[in-house]
Amino acid sequence: MKFFSYILIYRRFLLVAFTVLVLLPLPIVLRTKEAECAYTLFVVAIFWLTEALPLSVTALLPSLMFPMFGIMPSNKVASAYFKDFHLLLIGVICLATSIEKWNLHKRIALKMVMMVGVDPAWLTLGFMSSTAFLSMWLSNTSTAAMVMPMAEAVVQQIIKAEAEVEATQMTYFNGSTNPGLEIDESINGHETNERKEKTKPVPGYNNNTGKISCKMELEMNSGMGTKYRTKKDHMICKLMCLCIAYSSTIGGLTTITGTSTNLIFAEHFNTRYPDCRCLNFGSWFMFSFPAALTILLLSWIWLQWLFLGFNFKEMFKCGKTKTVQQKAYAEVIKKEYQKLGPIRYQEVVTLVLFIAMALLWFSRDPGFVSGWSALFSEYPGFATDSTVALLIGLLFFLIPAKRVTKTTSTGEIVAFDYSPLITWKEFQSFMPWDIAILFGGGFALADGCEESGLSKWIGNKLSPLGSLPVWLIILISSLMVTSLTEVASNAATITLLLPILSPLAEAIHVNPLFILIPSTLCTSFAFLLPVANPPNAIVFSYGHLKVIDMVKAGLGVNIVGVAVVMLGISTWIVPMFDLYTYPSWAPAMGNETMP
């Protein structure tokens, strides 16, 4: 028994040693560059999937193994760890740092929730919309961590309001005294000396005693110690948690900078196919926004139906009066918004820079008209989305936020300097350096597969798949990615599969975007398990959910996501990139039209 306990304690160390030794015959026996690169790929893949080592530490292995195997020199491998993508990431993190420092994200989220109303169904849609919008520009994790406490406050106020209303109702029907409500009473035909006041029915509640149940379901959540008066209260808590988690992931699909998987794909694609200048911030938004919006709305309907039921007639009924609970929800949100005070100068400047960054991204090379990049026609392709991100990012360190003062010896307060919108220390606290290294490891791995010839070998072996219908190949790859990303990190999943899927598309003579776009989008569909991605873990920690709740809800959202992606890649995305034609920027492999 003690032996097994030691194995359990040192399981990560044993897994690393076992993996390295068991796979070692592969490069020793075959002695080819392809086999040596495959050995590196398998070791990195196993470590990423099992997290035997930290993801960013595993990402450094190609810089150690490729020079030792003679696949790539060390200086060439090192160059893969800092690319154009990293400059784009730095600019985006500057924006995210300023947004969170000055609480602009809270103002945007609360304002959007106030706009949609306080009916439970519309309230959840409001939170989903605001969360998805913020996730387009901030990381999924920080968005979920920011919005969830506000959603939790609203949920707790819902439970409190219902308890107060039911207590008032029970007092009214039982005839007992309620200190907060004075009631007319007649005793033996004589009125008491209490103030004569008619008791009014509580808005939104049926005052028919036959419809009031005194039996309440009390549930205790062991994780948070929260009491649920009724099953409906618990369902609302579950619904709100899942709405925040899923919308923070769905919103990230919309922009290249919205999630790490989009950034990894963009860098891999632009590196492998440098002659294709069809993929930029604007073109990505044009095809991903309809998909993300559709997934968001269908997910809202699915979650609403699963936990509270979905009544179209009641939801869209005009002239409805607000119930006491709905007034309570509105009051909580209004108070949270009022705590922010009037909009400040720093928030205005951050918002202006935010809008400027988005507009410059969209207008750089929109495709249907000439963008501002045409001003630099002598240097085509030199200015990229990272150029915009760095320009705006630098302004955050330059524009004054407030004056710095000091007190002189005479007691006079004088200004001697100013503080910018963000400082380097604040930027460092937000910058995900571990993710930056992880991306670099993925790029190095892709370069090694190309240099060693492993990518070409994989493509040749997968060429028989060309006999299958293209839609079936896309569906298989999408389902494979969706399944793998539930147990491995999204970034590790896409990093592993891109060097395999790209040569697959080339081998079967299909436009690479036809397979890579759906696979990249599906990599974000980690909805089933709390450990699948950070937003899931954040909402799960509040204690309202069980794993089975997330599995049931996530399965439906996964199906919706894959179905919408398949629909998009077959309809509106096709003419944007001429997907039915094998492009000239991909390796020439025969006919010019897709089979």
Automatic annotation (TrEMBL):
Residues 187-200 have a biased composition (Basic and acidic residues). Signal peptide: none annotated. PROSITE patterns: NA_SULFATE. It comes from the Eukaryota. GO terms for molecular function: sodium:sulfate symporter activity. The chain crosses the membrane at residues 41-64, 85-102, 122-140, 239-265, 285-307, 343-362, 382-399, 470-501, 513-532, 553-574. CDD domains: SLC13_permease. One of its GO terms (cellular component) is plasma membrane. Keywords: Ion transport, Membrane, Sodium, Sodium transport, Symport, Transmembrane, Transmembrane helix, Transport. It is found in: Membrane. It is a multi-pass membrane protein. It holds the Pfam family Na_sulph_symp. Residues 183-204 are annotated as: Disordered. PANTHER family: SOLUTE CARRIER FAMILY 13 MEMBER, SOLUTE CARRIER FAMILY 13 MEMBER 1. Belongs to the SLC13A/DASS transporter (TC 2.A.47) family. NADC subfamily. This is Solute carrier family 13 member 1 isoform X1. It comes from Sapajus apella (Brown-capped capuchin). The gene is SLC13A1.
